[in-house]
C-alpha cells in the first residue's frame, strides 16, 4: 500500500513540475513576443519621426538639383517682364524666353525677394552696371537659405550684348573653365555701341525695355578703384509685371 502511495505522489509531483515548465515556457514566449512587438512599434515611430524631419527641412537648391528644378519651374512660371526699383529710379526688363533656365532663375529669386535691399555694387562707366550683392551679412544669409548652385552658360543662341542687355557674370579664370555663373548677380550693358567682345562668353538673358535713363544715371555714379560706388545704389525691390 505504501508503494502505491509513493508512486502516486511521484506521478503528481512530476505532473506539477511539468505544468510549471510549460507555464514558464509560455511566459517566456509571451515576453519575447511583447519585446518583438515593442521593437517593431519603436522602429516605426523612429522612421515616422525621421520622415517628418525630412519633410520639415526647407527646400534648398544645389548643384545636383538646380537644373532639373528650373527645367520644371520654367514650364509653370512663364513670367518675363520685371520692374527693378532702385534708390535712383526704376526700369523695366524683358527676360528672354530663349534662355529658359536663366529667366526662371531670375523669376524664382524675385519671388523669393532675394534682390530686395541688395546693391548695384559694381559700376564701370560706359561699360556696365552690376547688381545683386552687398557687403551685408543678411545677403549672405539669404543666399544660404536659397542654396548653393551655379548656372551653366547658355551662349549658343546668338544673343548679343547690345546696349541695355542684361547678362550673367562669371569668373574668367582657370578654376572656372566652363564659365559657370553665380545665379545671384547680373549686369547690364551701358556702352553706347554695346559690348560685343562678351558675346559667346557670357549669357545674355534679357534687355531693358523702359527706363534706360535710370540705368545711365546709375552708371554715372562715382565709384572707387574697386568699382564699388562711393554711395550705395540700393535695389529696393524687384516686381513681376507679367
From TrEMBL:
Keywords tagged on the record: Isomerase, Rotamase, Signal
Protein name as annotated: Peptidyl-prolyl cis-trans isomerase
Its EC number(s): 5.2.1.8
Molecular function terms, GO-annotated: peptidyl-prolyl cis-trans isomerase activity
Record-linked PROSITE patterns: CSA_PPIASE_1, CSA_PPIASE_2, PROKAR_LIPOPROTEIN
Function: PPIases accelerate the folding of proteins. It catalyzes the cis-trans isomerization of proline imidic peptide bonds in oligopeptides.
Signal peptide residues on this chain, from the entry's feature table: 1-24
Pfam families: Pro_isomerase
Gene3D superfamilies attached to this UniProt entry: Cyclophilin-like
Record-linked InterPro entries: Cyclophilin-like_dom_sf, Cyclophilin-type_PPIase_CS, Cyclophilin-type_PPIase_dom, Cyclophilin_A-like
PPIase cyclophilin-type domain boundaries: 85-240
Similarity comment: family membership: Belongs to the cyclophilin-type PPIase family.
Keyword Secreted part of the UniProt annotation: no
Catalytic reaction annotation: [protein]-peptidylproline (omega=180) = [protein]-peptidylproline (omega=0)
Entry superkingdom: Bacteria
GO terms under biological process: protein folding
Organism: Galbibacter orientalis DSM 19592
Amino acid at each position: 500500500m505504501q508503494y502505491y502511495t509513493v508512486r502516486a505522489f511521484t506521478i503528481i509531483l512530476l505532473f506539477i513540475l511539468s505544468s510549471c515548465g510549460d507555464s514558464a515556457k509560455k511566459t517566456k514566449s509571451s515576453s519575447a513576443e511583447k519585446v518583438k512587438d515593442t521593437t517593431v512599434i519603436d522602429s516605426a515611430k523612429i522612421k515616422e519621426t525621421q520622415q517628418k524631419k525630412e519633410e520639415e527641412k526647407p527646400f534648398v537648391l544645389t548643384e545636383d538639383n538646380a537644373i532639373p528644378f528650373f527645367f520644371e519651374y520654367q514650364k509653370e512660371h512663364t513670367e518675363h517682364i520685371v520692374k527693378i526699383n532702385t534708390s535712383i529710379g526704376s526700369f523695366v526688363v524683358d527676360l528672354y524666353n530663349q534662355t529658359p533656365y536663366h529667366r526662371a532663375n531670375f523669376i524664382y529669386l524675385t519671388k523669393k525677394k532675394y534682390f530686395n535691399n541688395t546693391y548695384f555694387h559694381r559700376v564701370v562707366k560706359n561699360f556696365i552696371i552690376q547688381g545683386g550683392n552687398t557687403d551685408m551679412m543678411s545677403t549672405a544669409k539669404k543666399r544660404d537659405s536659397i542654396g548653393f548652385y551655379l548656372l551653366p552658360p547658355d551662349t549658343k543662341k546668338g544673343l548679343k550684348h547690345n546696349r541695355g542687355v542684361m547678362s550673367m557674370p562669371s569668373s574668367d579664370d582657370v578654376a572656372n573653365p566652363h564659365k559657370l555663373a553665380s545665379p545671384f548677380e547680373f549686369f547690364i550693358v551701358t556702352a553706347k555701341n554695346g559690348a560685343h567682345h562678351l558675346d559667346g562668353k557670357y549669357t545674355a538673358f534679357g534687355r531693358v525695355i523702359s527706363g534706360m535713363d535710370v540705368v545711365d544715371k546709375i552708371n554715372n555714379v562715382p565709384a572707387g578703384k574697386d568699382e564699388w560706388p562711393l554711395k550705395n545704389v540700393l535695389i529696393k525691390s524687384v516686381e513681376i509685371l507679367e
